[in-house]
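Tip: read the tokens left to right.
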């Protein structure tokens, strides 16, 4: 399951080159989930080894790399119109004897493949999420005049083939880091494109993950978020020759010196096993926050979505998790207006939200994604009805979010300071429950974990003072 906490496009800086630079500059634009952010960083590492330096202005770039997301409606059309604008830029460059290379990566690249080359003459390289390690080679071929489409699912492990980030790069990226441990999805929820764009579920080996986490911690990272479309489906052979699940992996990662905080996202309710639930009881490093999408509170709709659990199963699961750690903040994803959703089904979702109480949530109107079973179902819901339901749902979720934030006031927490605030006399970190927290700059420096008391709620953040 993809997490869309970060749907706003984010420019990911490519790291410093490990070899003598040839002077080429790359501008990377990332859309979509945190897994795309992680992938952009890995591609940035590969390009840095190839001599590229990063730039945050497309105008000065020799290569523009767009890492795309396919989860939303018209995602591909938006990419095509962006490519149209780049086409113009390339033409202008050529008029003055310069050039521009354009590479499209990510889930739109995977889904559209050759079609991108046909429709967007500006594009030199189309590269799917499983082939990022081949990006430097694809660019070399493109420079020789070829237009390259690399969207197969090769047997080689891209993470192994991709170069590691240097310490300097890791430090430049901050004290929190993403680490992809699992990719792909075999769940085939009937609304979702992910099983088609990211392929079958695969887990990275435990040893590689431990190695990467150790490197991150040695370079100064204090909080690691494990990523996967179905992160809690992660499994692998552990150091003790037993098959581990995510709970065991988290236990092991928590022992790495310097790994002070762990998070993971996104989880499927069916993969929440006892070991993982117990990790929330036993590991102080594991932050009390769980993104556990349910999508709907109606059993009829859950069945049509192929979620393979009922609303009652989900509520029981939440109770089990809260019984080991009552302090846990729950977050979820919701879809309104899935084909066939009646007012009554929608009321079931509202009731489930009332029962569970979410600290944070993401909600969407169902959008028809060609190629998914949901797109062909009868009973597509009217847009106006979807909008009206979404508004009611978001009002409820937002009131819960505000109530959760208000209940934090007066609590003492450990705050990891991540970056300077908007005002120079402020610093910003995250609460254990993932809310942004603003403190006085004198509270500490980036990377410090300081004891603070939450004093006030802001519109989207909390204010705190050193205790
Ligand atoms: N329509 C609406 N929302 C969707 N999501 C995924 N596919 C669709 C779709 N076709 C939402 C789900 C998922 C989140 C990442 O995006 O809630 O959990
Ligand atoms: Fe998540 Fe279902 Fe999509 Fe898999 S198919 S990524 S479980 S929403």
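Filled-in amino acids:
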């Amino acid at each position: 399951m993809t997490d869309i906490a970060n749907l706003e496009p984010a420019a990911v800086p490519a790291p410093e080159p490990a070899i003598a630079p040839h002077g080429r500059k790359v501008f990377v634009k990332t859309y979509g989930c945190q897994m795309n952010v992680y992938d952009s960083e890995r591609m940035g590492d590969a390009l840095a080894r190839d001599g590229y330096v990063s730039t945050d202005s497309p105008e000065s770039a020799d290569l523009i790399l767009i890492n795309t997301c396919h989860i939303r409606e018209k995602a591909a059309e938006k990419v095509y119109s962006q490519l149209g604008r780049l086409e113009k830029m390339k033409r202008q460059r050529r008029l003055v004897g310069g050039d521009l290379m354009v590479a499209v990566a990510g889930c739109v690249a995977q889904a559209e493949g050759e079609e991108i080359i046909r429709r967007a003459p500006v594009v030199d390289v189309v590269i799917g999420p499983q082939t990022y390690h081949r990006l430097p080679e694809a660019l070399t071929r493109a420079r020789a005049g070829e237009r390259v489409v690399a969207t197969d699912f090769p047997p080689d492990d891209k993470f192994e083939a991709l170069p590691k980030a240097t310490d300097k790069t890791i430090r430049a990226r901050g004290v929190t880091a993403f680490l992809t441990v699992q990719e792909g999805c075999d769940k085939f929820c009937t609304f979702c494109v992910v099983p088609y764009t990211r392929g079958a579920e695969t887990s990275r080996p435990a040893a590689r993950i431990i190695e990467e986490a150790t490197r991150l911690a040695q370079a100064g990272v204090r909080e690691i978020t494990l990523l996967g479309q179905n992160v809690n489906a992660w499994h692998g052979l552990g150091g003790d020759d037993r098959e581990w699940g995510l709970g065991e992996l988290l236990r092991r990662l928590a022992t790495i010196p310097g790994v002070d905080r762990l998070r993971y996202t996104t989880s499927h309710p069916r993969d929440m096993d006892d070991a993982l639930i117990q990790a929330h009881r036993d590991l102080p490093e594991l932050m009390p926050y769980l993104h556990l999408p349910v999508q709907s509170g109606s059993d009829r709709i859950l069945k049509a979505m192929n979620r393979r659990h009922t609303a009652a199963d989900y509520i029981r699961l939440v109770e089990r998790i809260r019984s080991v750690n009552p302090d846990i903040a729950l977050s979820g994803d919701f879809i309104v207006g899935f084909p066939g959703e009646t007012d009554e089904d929608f009321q079931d979702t509202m009731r489930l939200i009332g029962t569970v109480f979410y600290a944070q949530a993401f909600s969407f109107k169902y959008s028809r994604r060609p190629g998914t079973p949901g797109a062909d179902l009868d009973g597509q819901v009217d847009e106006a009805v979807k909008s009206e339901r979404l508004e009611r749902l978001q009002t409820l979720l937002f009131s819960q979010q505000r109530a959760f934030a208000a209940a934090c006031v007066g609590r003492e927490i450990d705050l990891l300071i991540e970056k300077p605030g908007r005002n120079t006399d402020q610093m910003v970190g995250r609460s254990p429950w993932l809310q942004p927290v603003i403190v006085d700059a004198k509270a500490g420096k980036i990377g410090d974990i300081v004891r603070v008391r939450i004093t006030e709620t802001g519109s989207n953040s909390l204010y705190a003072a050193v205790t």
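Confidence is low (pLDDT under 50) at residues 1-11. Residues 1-2, 4, 71, 191-192, 293, 295, 333, 335, 364, 366-367, 369 surround 5'-deoxyadenosine (ligand 1) (CB under 6 Å).
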